[in-house]
What does this fold into?
Amino acid sequence: MADLPTESIFHPFNISHHTYKTLSTHPIRAAILTPKTLPPGTHPVAINIHGGYLVCGHRTFPPFFHPWLLRLSLTHNTIIVSADHRLLPTPNGLKDINTDLEHFWTWLHGPGFRKALSESLPGVTVDFGRTLVVGGSAGGYGALQLALAHPSEMKMVAGSYPMVDLRGEFWVNGPREGAPTPVGLPLESIMSREDTEAWIEEGLKRAGEGEMVSEGGGLEMVPVGVALAWHGLFWRLFDPKGEVGAGELPVEMVRAGGKLPRKVWIVHGDADSTVPVEGSRVFAGLVREMLPGTEMRLDTGEGKDHGFDLMWKEDDEWARERLAWLVQAWLKV
It folds into this structure.
């Protein structure tokens, strides 16, 4: 993990933080990132949903933030808005995350965001006709949920190794026999099933008492996510009350007739031990079958594991060709 992005990736940007909703007294916030060289005028926007297995991370957590998105922002003078949401465990699991993302979307398109932007950057406005929604891993889940909820309100959606087929075997029962451990964590370092179940129960108890977390821990929380996956316990968090339905599950939403923006891009390593590529293949196949009006592009990185796009360099030819396609799809008027 030594090569993961650090705070330095944000140095060329002005960043302001804004509360988009308050639950009881708990603020849930979004960040507006703009290049320090951004001129006045109207600019395209990228909406970023952070990763972290839905249990950790936050809107400007460098190790989970795509440097390629920041480079595109600097090159093409775009605005980035990055949102937090409640982290699991919560009383209603995936339903609570989706509720937060809907409230964020309403704030983004309302007076709250306009006021926040004008106070931070007078003379700068957003061209919502050129909206990209992007997320990696857990953020890919959030990005695709927003895309399915608002397909006509964005130009395209992009997901890196998204958590997309949450009824898949990996999420229900854990990795198949003989599979590598998520993020390569040594087997002897994985928390026991009993300790993981105790963590879940304690977290659900605190959540039921009103405790909320929306700016969670960093890399120290990764072993918890690994244990949840390894022991097949994620659904205890996804659906604590047995109420999650198709509306919280991207594959099932598409299967039920849900729509998507005109262009969808997913990039996923075919050796991903943390979020198996099979989920992206299932989703892409279903989109091609059910939504012929949507251009569904799935790029698989041969031999690549989770988070491989975080290490893309500007001279990476494989990445450069794909990002050129994304720029054309997003920014072409």
